[in-house]
């Protein structure tokens, strides 16, 4: 039996990793979300050996709207730096500022279907 491809989702804090992961799992995908931005290694995501890497980005202002954070822009920039390797290797980069949770899941699902990784019977 062939195993489904592993999709790994990384991104800055409050960019939608958990939301996207749950939504894609609900559609039948094998997904791991990874809080790379809290690590000290730019290469940590590679340990999961994903078949498809998704990087989610959003502005600092969006993070502050979505989540109560006690840190400032300097830490946000550090998160971006820690994600630079993942960004360079990402199969899909999504700026999530303007997406609702449902729109984000639908957008990524559509993209996966177009790449032949999704199943149209899973809601697409």
Search tags:
124 residues; alpha/beta; Rossmann fold; 4-stranded parallel β-sheet; disordered C terminus
Can you give a write-up of this model?
- With 124 residues, the protein is an alpha/beta fold.
- The chain has a single domain (6-122), classed as Rossmann fold.
- Helix content is 38%, strand content 16%.
- It has 5 helices and 4 strands; from the N terminus they run βαββαααβα.
- The protein has helices spanning 17-26, 60-66, 73-82, 84-89, 101-114; strands at 6-11, 30-33, 52-57, 92-95.
- It has a 4-stranded parallel β-sheet with strand order 2-1-3-4.
- α1 crosses α5 (101-114).
- The longest helix has 14 residues, at 101-114.
Summarize the structure.
By secondary structure, the protein is of the alpha/beta class. The chain has helices at 17-26, 60-66, 73-82, 84-89, 101-114, and strands at residues 6-11, 30-33, 52-57, 92-95.
């Amino acid at each position: 039996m062939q195993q489904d491809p592993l999709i790994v989702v990384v991104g800055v804090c409050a960019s939608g990793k958990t939301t996207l992961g749950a939504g894609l799992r609900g559609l039948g995908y094998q997904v791991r979300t990874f809080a790379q931005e809290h690590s000290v290694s730019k290469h940590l995501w590679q340990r999961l050996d994903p078949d498809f890497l998704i990087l989610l980005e959003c502005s600092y202002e969006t993070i502050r709207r979505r989540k109560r954070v006690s840190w400032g822009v300097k830490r946000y920039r550090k998160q971006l730096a820690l994600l630079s390797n993942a960004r360079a290797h990402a199969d899909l980069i999504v700026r999530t500022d303007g997406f609702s949770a449902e729109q984000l899941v639908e957008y990524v699902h559509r993209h996966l279907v177009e790449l032949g990784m999704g199943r149209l019977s899973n809601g697409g």
